[in-house]
Write a structure and sequence with these properties.
The chain has helices at about 10-20, 25-30, 35-40, 45-65, 65-80, 85-95, 100-120, 125-140, 145-155, 165-170, 170-185, 195-215, 215-225, 230-245, 250-255, 265-300, 300-325, 370, 420-435, 460-475, 495-510, 565-575, 580-590, 595-610, and strands spanning about 185, 190, 335, 360-365, 380-385, 405-410, 440-445, 450-455, 480-485, 515-520, 535-545, 550-555. With about 600 residues, it is α/β, with parallel strands linked by helices. Helix 20 links the parallel strand 8 (about 450-455) and strand 9. One of its GO terms (molecular function) is mismatched DNA binding.
Length: about 600
């Protein structure tokens, strides 16, 4: 495949990559999902990520049928990235996309859950050892030496199951020798501390160079000691060098000048000869030591290469495992076998029966966006389902087991969590299709070809309506398995028209055997709905002692949720700044029901006493 055939690689990008990397290396970086190499070559990090998402998972990106679906996907990945153990792992997480087959999803789930269990079983000290090794690995930009050290840290921590088995088979003694050799060698040069004799020679040469730089001081010192004749002078220089340096007596005597014209010439000639001799000795010793180290590395090459690959792969698995642990994630069950679908060319619709539309169901699901900021565990878990689900035993506070309708219309109070429920279902489906555990006690997911997520966009602009319909209808009509998550469609057009269009969307979703949740305040205007659709509701229950809205975020099935203007008006009355303002709000209370408003305030005061 040529470089310019990859998505997002135009002439300018191609020229940059070829100039910095060469075409072969650039293609390897793209195929390997190597964000860092592309970024170091001059591509913006975000652009490199987008190119790699398409190169490694174009089918998965095509699943994200709307801009809101793509935005939710990116937001989700950033939550996962917070648990990455290296920058390279973070980059690899950012290019994960929904997978194309259940086999691939199951395989990654196996890997992540095995890593989760192995990591959870480690003692805190062992975890810190591994994380510190990965921190050094990151600081050294994933060098071979850092990779070998990380592999040794994993071995020492005793992790040997699941994805960690890749390093468990490596010979620890071999890796230890390789780590020492890699630490000792730096671009062919032997580092300090690698060989005691080489260190001694280098230190001696340094002292000789210092003496040579101050030869006049040595001459003055010898003369002040009363040294006068040639014999005494030679003996004094020898004693000084043997005392001040680690040079041997034989090396000093061999270096002493025999034809110097005066004392100054004698000292400088002798020191120059010593420097030349020591430099040669250092070069010879360094070549010997470097050769031995390179032989060690050659003998350890297979182990080193395996360590580099394994440590990088383990970093990804470990990062996903830490995410799964942080949010108490579980393995989703995939509903319906891939074999139940009839494969056809992309230009032709997929043949399905209603029974093949699949299901999405969650028990005790948590919204990750809320949970990531939840410091007191107050996020309410939700149970919900579409299609032929397997929910039987649900929490006691759920009014009933959800029906098996494939499409629901979700109603209820403002700030009641309807949008959050859509986001939660979107997150669960995306994580499951990426082969990552999901934040729920139980979950069933049918992989879909199109995920249509539409957030509320408040605008009556005709262009917004047209653009919205162009984005959400074609995926629904294309014939592939689709999940519709549409939030307050009525916000982009007039209420009367909105009810008619929304009813059409619900009917189209049913006709196309799609799964879907449509959030709306217009449920009463949508009747009669198709039998395959139901209406669910979320209810506010009053005000708390701080006059904040009390909401049961768990939907009630087959029940229309109601708006709660009386609760809002009650709060406005209680918080009014003066009597005239309060009187104005009391007029509104008469419109929504004065008795209900007064009872709401009484209940709030009782809650404050309690």
């Amino acid at each position: 495949m040529r470089l310019e055939e990859y998505w997002g690689v135009g002439p300018k990008t191609r020229a940059t990559l070829v100039e910095q990397l060469g075409e072969k290396r650039a293609i390897e970086a793209i195929e390997n999902g190597d964000v860092r190499t592309l970024s170091n070559a001059g591509l913006a990090h975000g652009r490199a990520t987008r190119i790699l998402r398409r190169a490694t998972g174009s089918g998965g990106m095509d699943t994200l049928a709307t801009s809101d679906a793509r935005a939710a996907y990116k937001e989700l990945l950033e939550i996962v990235v917070e648990h990455a153990v290296t920058e390279r792992a973070a980059d690899r997480i950012r290019v994960l996309t929904p997978l194309s087959s259940r086999e691939a999803m199951e395989a990654r789930l196996d890997d992540v859950l095995a890593a989760r269990d192995a990591w959870a079983a480690l003692a805190d000290d062992d975890r810190e050892t591994v994380l510190a090794a990965y921190e050094r690995y990151d600081e050294r930009d994933g060098s071979e030496h850092a990779a070998v050290e990380a592999a040794l840290a994993l071995l020492e921590a005793g992790v040997d199951s699941g994805p960690f088995a890749a390093v468990a088979d490596l010979e620890q003694a071999r890796l230890t020798d390789a780590a020492r050799a890699l630490a000792a060698l730096d671009d062919g040069r032997v580092n300090e501390g690698a060989d005691a004799e080489l260190d001694r020679l280098r230190e001696t040469l340094g002292v000789i160079e210092d003496i040579d730089a101050n030869a006049s001081d040595l001459l003055a010192e010898l003369r002040s000691d009363g040294v006068r004749d040639v014999g005494q002078f030679r003996e004094a220089v020898e004693d000084h060098l043997l005392t001040e340096t680690a040079v041997t007596v034989d090396r000093v005597r061999e270096a002493m000048a025999t034809d110097a014209v005066d004392a100054t010439d004698f000292i400088r000639t002798t020191l120059r000869a010593l420097r030349t001799d020591l430099t040669a000795a250092i070069d010879e010793r360094e070549q010997t030591v470097a050769g031995d180290l390179e032989n060690t590395l050659e003998a350890s090459r297979t182990a080193i290469d395996r360590a580099v690959t394994s440590v990088d792969d383990i970093a990804l698995s470990l990062s996903l495992a830490r995410f799964a642990l942080a949010y108490d994630c579980t393995r989703p069950a995939f509903v319906e076998d891939e074999a139940h679908r009839v494969s056809r060319p992309a230009s032709e619709p997929t043949e399905r029966t209603p029974e093949q539309a699949g299901a999405v169901s969650v028990v005790g699901a948590r919204n990750l966006t809320l949970a990531s900021h939840d410091t007191d565990g107050s996020t309410q878990p939700i149970t919900y389902a579409l299609g032929e689900h397997g929910i039987e035993n649900v929490p006691v506070d759920v009014n009933a087991v959800p029906g098996t309708e494939r499409v629901s219309v979700l109603t209820g109070a403002n700030s009641g969590g309807k949008t959050t429920l859509l986001e939660t279902l979107c997150q669960v489906v995306l994580l499951a299709m990426m082969g990552i555990p999901v934040p729920a006690e139980r979950a069933e997911v049918t992989p879909v070809e199109s995920l249509v997520f539409h957030r509320r966009h408040a605008s009556f602009n005709a262009g917004v309506l047209e653009a919205t319909l162009r984005s959400i209808v074609p995926p629904l009509s294309a014939g592939g398995r689709t999940l519709m998550l549409v939030d307050e469609f009525e916000a982009i057009t007039e209420p009367g028209s909105a009810a008619e269009l929304l009813h059409g969307l619900v009917r189209l979703a049913v006709e196309q055997d799609a799964l879907g949740v449509f959030v709306t305040h217009l449920a009463d205007d949508l009747a009669p709905l198709p039998s395959e659709a139901r209406v669910d509701g979320i209810f506010a229950e009053g005000l708390d002692s701080e006059l904040e809205l009390l909401v049961d975020y768990q939907p009630r099935f087959d029940t229309v949720g109601r708006s709660t203007p009386e609760f809002i008006v009650s709060r406005l009355i209680a918080n009014a700044d003066d009597r005239s303002e309060q009187a104005g709000f009391e007029t509104l209370a008469e419109a929504v029901g004065s008795d209900v408003v007064q009872q709401t305030l009484v209940d709030a005061r009782w809650r404050e006493r309690d």
